Amino acid sequence: MRQEVEIEYKNLLTETEYNKLKEIYFDRSSTHITQNNYYFDTKDSHLKSAACALRIRTKDGSAEMTLKTPFEGHHNETTLDLSIEKASELISAGYFSLPEDIHTVLIEQGVSFSENVFIVAQLKTERLEIKKPHSIIVLDKSYYSNEVDYELEVEADSISIGKNVFNTILKNNKIPKRATENKIARAFNATQ
After folding, report:
1. What pLDDT shows up at residue 182?
2. Among 68, 119, 153, 189, which is most exposed with the fewest C-beta within 10 angstroms?
3. What is the pTM of this model?
């Protein structure tokens, strides 16, 4: 199990803005990853109500389960590595009871329930990443329901570095800041 604070800044992009940033910041040496994300919650949306999110992600022959919990405007992430076989089993079943480690973290957050979690949304992302000193610049093209969207993410070691890199990219490319829901919210809302 791994735990870390995730400091990230996000902004939805138009397709034109996405293509412009892709041309400016990314080349053939950039990391290209296809991720399949499956989001889970209880039938009564206990996780969503507590501003938490649970996903299983598969990519490049690996899989993981991640619980995101709120932390000072960002997130704490608790991640369990899964075998592809175990991830496929949980995804195919469409529901499961929480692993003990995840349940313990939720209890520490004041969230407790004993019911199973179910798939509430799924999303496929084509991700481009470039590592910079103390930050990662990410471009995502995501597919869910009948939607496609484009997003800039900056993940950083600190709030000040993250804000600076994020704001500089937007300013230099004349991209307006847009209120950006997280991926699970966008994917879930598209199913409603």
Report:
1. 83
2. 189
3. 0.89
